[in-house]
Design brief:
By secondary structure, the chain is mainly β. Helices cover 9% and strands 57% of the residues.
Length: 364
């Protein structure tokens, strides 16, 4: 792999050449949110947090824009009360010119983030941020992207200039590539991951189109140990959209699933049934139904019931009410149960806490 010094020099040269042609117009923006809540299933009962998102932008005279974003976080640590230190996270530096962009920091690897193939594809095991930033001890992710002749192309690397990453010792490693575009009414995508430490090389391709009102996707992926071929179809019938997929995993198990989504006026309901192993459907299926009803005057009622037979004590359910207080404030009251959830959080799609919760949140 080429040294990170080369990449750093290119970044400096790119931004420096732009600055030489004109002056930058700086701007700094802030946005934030805060929450205070009580939950009867956590040790101290009360919890709180606050986050401030900072965006600094410099628009250069020749059309180049440099942007730095990061978050400032205050989280309840339990022992120190409100005296916890402020931490920063999610730092990203971006230099953009026309249809091309170069980003560095806490960004997603491109194949893992963008590939939209078919559900149940066991070969689609692209490295995510945990592998890049934690396991390999990378300092950040470098992403370059551009648009050429109607196609979008992106490449990403894990970056570590201090002796290389922990798995292979390279400064730039764990490359992923993603390309997407259209040929008439047919959309195509290609994703690639190079072999990185114990994780495999992966090739994946997907093709999507619409036929007689139905959206159809066909995809193929190969990660050396498993090859996956899948098809996914969705079709709207009035306010209901029905869908299904079937994936054959050579070296694994076949997966399939059905779903239905209803949205009409104040009512929204989603139901699904998934089987992770077609030969053992009784012990590998998961299903559920979740819905919401907009009562009016800012009040929305939500409820859900979920079952996952792959784990013991898998039944989960929740009921909740969310009330818009106006001005970016919201009141939440919820009750959720999921004994199979070790952390007792992120229950259902709304990701509620286990037990009874009363929370007020503010957006600034």
């Amino acid at each position: 792999m080429k040294s990170i010094l080369l990449t750093s020099t290119a970044l400096v040269a790119f931004a420096g050449a732009a600055a030489a042609d004109g002056h930058a117009t700086p701007g700094i923006g802030f946005a934030g949110e805060a929450e205070l809540g009580y939950n009867d299933d956590i040790e101290d009962g009360f919890y709180w947090s606050a986050d401030v998102d900072v965006t600094a932008t410099a628009a250069l005279d020749n059309g180049v824009v440099a942007t730095a974003t990061f978050g400032l976080n205050i989280v309840d640590e339990g022992e120190e009360g409100l005296g916890n230190p402020v931490t920063s996270s999610d730092y990203v530096l971006t230099v953009e010119a026309g249809s091309s962009k170069l980003s560095f920091g806490d960004v997603d690897p491109v194949a893992e983030d963008r590939a939209g193939l078919v559900d149940g594809m066991e070969a689609e095991t692209f490295n995510d941020q945990d592998t890049h930033l934690i396991t390999a001890d990378f300092e950040g992710i470098l992403v370059g992207e551009t648009e050429i002749a109607g196609f979008s192309a992106a490449v990403s690397f894990g970056v570590d200039g201090e002796g290389g990453n922990d798995l292979t010792g390279e400064d730039l490693d764990a490359m992923q590539v993603y390309v997407s575009g259209s040929f008439g009414s047919v959309d195509v995508e290609f994703a690639y991951q190079e072999e990185f430490g114990p994780t495999p090389e992966i090739y994946a391709v997907g093709v999507s189109t619409s036929v007689a009102g139905a959206d159809i996707t066909v995809a193929y992926a190969d990660n050396t140990a498993v090859t996956s071929t899948g098809i996914q179809i969705s079709y709207p019938v009035g306010p209901v959209t029905v869908g299904g997929y079937y994936t054959m995993n050579d070296g694994g198990s076949d997966d399939y699933g059905l779903s239905a989504e209803y949205a009409d006026g104040p009512i929204a309901v989603e139901a699904f049934y998934d089987v992770a192993d077609a030969d053992n459907a009784d012990t590998s299926d998961s299903y559920g139904v979740e819905g919401s009803y907009d009562v009016g005057n800012g009040l929305t009622v939500l409820a859900g019931y979920l079952v996952n037979d792959e784990s013991a004590d898998s039944d989960a359910y929740y009921v909740a009410g969310e009330y818009d207080l106006g001005g970016g404030a919201e009141l939440l009251v919820s009750y959720a149960e999921d004994e199979g959830n070790v952390g007792n959080d992120e229950i259902g799609d709304p990701e509620y806490l286990h037990g009874t919760t009363v929370q007020v949140s503010f957006t600034f």
